[in-house]
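Protocol step 4 of 5: obtain the predicted structure for the target chain.
Materials: sequence only (see below). No template structures provided, no constraints applied. The aim of this step is simply to have a reference model before the mutagenesis design in step 5. Sequence pasted as it appears in the construct record:
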Amino acid sequence: MKGLKLRIILGLLIVILIIPAAYGLEALDRNRGLKSGAIIKVQDESSGSLVALMGIDVLKSLMLQQFPDDDSAEGPTLLYVIGASGLSGYEKVEVKGLKGGEKFLGDKKDLSGPYVLALNERGTADLVELEKPEVILVRDVSEINKVQ
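Step 4 output (structure tokens):
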């Protein structure tokens, strides 16, 4: 009986220690991803609320959903990513890069397809125009913000 109680107490202690460690590792990984551009933060700046965190793996899945038979696709369109994130009610959207100076501001009517979040070899995404993918508008996208 004494051995059983000891095992139960040890089991509970292990569970109690694992849960905070898991939360800590998740926060550390998320912060590292946000700083490296591997995770894109989608937020509503007007209300200050976080709408979604989208990793590069999510962008790859969205690209395959949007362009299932197109092997030449470089990434999903900006409008498709915005829709998948759940961001709504916007008139203007701002896309920021890892380097604070790189920004793109687009109206709702302008976003109807020509802008793509092109996946690159660095494990991040660049905002480019569909017709001119060699011209990078925002390198290493880190945020998509609803401004209005």
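Step 4 remarks: The chain is about 35% helix and 30% strand. The chain has two domains: 1-36, 38-146.
Proceed to step 5.
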